[in-house]
């Protein structure tokens, strides 16, 4: 399998200038379902599987799960900032360096799966309450040097959810787990 398809199993995220409410609701459903999908997939996995990289020179599944929890926690906070401030500048973080911290390499995945479970319950409650005016609110991402609408952020995190789920799922498929 070529490296690009291992890195981007569902392709790269492609943003649109605007998203319909139906597209946003579909994205919210994908975000909402992620914790259960991971819990169902990883339920019987031991450390040997969790400590397997999903691709050559990639993160282990353990690091991947902790990354998703970290990323989605940051996204939730960014949503709240954008909903309560006018185009706030968000704080980027070094996700690759976070994945190298001790808790991302050693902690039980159950900790991040439970964090995701309850975070996603609260996040989707917030997301489902948003109308077109709120979804048009923005934040400024200094690393990307651009202002981003919340409807795009919802679509991006739906993509991010499935993107990382497929990393673990396809690893399991390739290894017949």
Automatic annotation (TrEMBL):
Q: Which residues form the DinB-like domain?
A: 35-167
Q: Which Gene3D superfamilies match?
A: dinb family like domain
Domain of life, source organism: Bacteria
User: Which InterPro entries does the entry link to?
Assistant: DinB-like (IPR024775), DinB/YfiT-like (IPR034660)
**Protein name stated in the entry:** DinB-like domain-containing protein
Q: Give the originating organism.
A: Rhabdobacter roseus
């Amino acid at each position: 399998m070529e490296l690009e398809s291992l890195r981007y199993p569902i392709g790269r995220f492609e943003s649109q200038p605007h998203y319909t409410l139906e597209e946003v609701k579909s994205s919210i459903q994908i975000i909402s379902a992620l914790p259960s999908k991971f819990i169902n997939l990883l339920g019987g996995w031991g450390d040997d599987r969790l400590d397997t990289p999903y691709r050559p020179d990639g993160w282990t599944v353990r690091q991947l799960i902790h990354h998703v929890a970290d990323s989605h926690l940051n996204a939730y906070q960014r949503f709240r900032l954008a909903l309560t401030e006018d185009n706030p500048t968000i704080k980027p973080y070094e996700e690759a360096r976070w994945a190298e911290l001790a808790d991302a390499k050693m902690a039980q995945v159950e900790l991040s799966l439970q964090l995701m479970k309850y975070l996603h319950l609260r996040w989707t409650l917030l997301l489902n309450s948003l109308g077109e005016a709120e979804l048009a609110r923005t934040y400024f991402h200094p690393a990307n040097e651009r202002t981003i609408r919340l409807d795009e952020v919802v679509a991006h995190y739906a993509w991010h959810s499935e993107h990382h789920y497929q990393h673990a799922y396809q690893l399991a498929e390739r290894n017949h787990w």
